[in-house]
Design goal:
By secondary structure, this protein is of the alpha/beta class. The protein has two domains: 220 residues, Rossmann fold, CATH 3.40.50; 223 residues, Glycerol-3-phosphate (1)-acyltransferase (3-Layer(aba) Sandwich). Helix content is 49%, strand content 13%. Strands 7, 8, 9, 10, 11, 12, 13 and 14 form an eight-stranded mixed sheet that branches. Helix 4 crosses helix 5 and helix 13 crosses helix 14. The longest helix is centred in the C-terminal third of the chain and has 32 residues. The radius of gyration is 29 Å and the shape is elongated. The two termini are 51 Å apart.
Amino acid sequence: MMKIILDTDGTTTNFNKFMQEEAIPYFQKKYGMEIVNPEELEVEDILDMKNFFQKKYSITEQEAEKMVKKALDSFWIGWNFVKFSLLNRFRPGVKEFLNKMIKLGYDVEIHTSRSKTCDKTIIGKVARTFTIWQYWLNGVKINKKDVFFYKNDEDKINGIIDQNPDLVFDDKPIIIDQLLNKKIPTICVEGNHNKDLIENKNMAKINTFNQQELDPKLEKLIPEQKRKYHQRIVDSNRYFKNLQIFRPAILGYFRPLVLHKENIIVSKEPKTIIAPNHRNTFDPLVITGFLNINVHWAALSRFFEANDSIFNNSKNIHLCKFTADAFKKLEYFPIERKCDNPNANNFNTLKDMNNFLKYHEPIGIFGEGTTKHPENQYFGNFDDSFLTLAKKNNAWIQPVTITWVDDNLIGNKVVINFGKAFKVNDQSIEKAMEKYMTIHFENLKENEDIIEGKKKNKKKR
């Protein structure tokens, strides 16, 4: 899913306005300070506090810095922070925009460098709590886990980059410049301190979050194709979530024996191709049921055309229609085999697979392409196209070896063995296939040994 990151002070809130109405008058009245740099953001820079204290008291730079800190604490620690964090209203349109993005399935995160929020004291805890409450009181349905706190701007920049966002809203030139250096699309919320920033292909500027002003900027910075794929993925994952009510029944019926769970990377790595052997039409159902993750599987076109069903290839019209509807809504990929159609063309499907990997969605491919195998041969012939796809996208290959068994013998209908994931990298496709098949044969032996062991134990009882 696409990720949007927003700053708070100066972005969702009008920091310039609060400085003008509250902070500057406070320090002018208390210390007799004057405005020196009106186009700066922070009050200490606007009033040039350090230089003021140095001249007034004839003290060193270090001593002046301590006085600045003490003066700022006298302003922020208390009622002024309550006014700024809890009572300060967001810019027009912020609530509507953020709630809309959340509803559309975007990952919305807040990244703020309010320094006090990082204190390991009661003050820090209060500052963090008030920051979260500020969003709630302004009507934004943000989760606590999606709010990130930083001690300074440098830490914040690194934190944002690590999150690999699709779009960032901020107001500080130093932060925006660093994000643009990393080619991260950014929207600058205009203020006195960033007037010199000029729009370019990766950066746009706004005054408010009103839809009429904001929508053209979003269209500029987020390509239409990306937005379309995002919506497909979100709708698919929502449908998958609705199907989770069947998960206990699936696991209860098949009772999969799962080996080497520690090798599962699909929830840890952004680009993963799950590549099992294929023994049963229920293979994707059982694997997906165990992983509890929406894996987008490649499947034969006849399933999408309601000519076949996943239920042991039953041709029951209702099961076929359910299979077709589910495959489409789960965003599975229709594949035509040359043996079924000599004019088969899977170009669009391969393009879809590439884009789903690009947008960090896991896909599943049965390289054998069929559950029918030569007699006395456990594995069929694996097509190496999934390895080519992995190499092109720098994706991980997650080998999975499935063995079906009579559950009356061991109490499980299926054994699922997750092999150690790997990347093709600079290997030839032939070498990568050798590695892949070696993992399968090792896993198969382990599966058979465990099945035999469970059989013997059951006989002894």
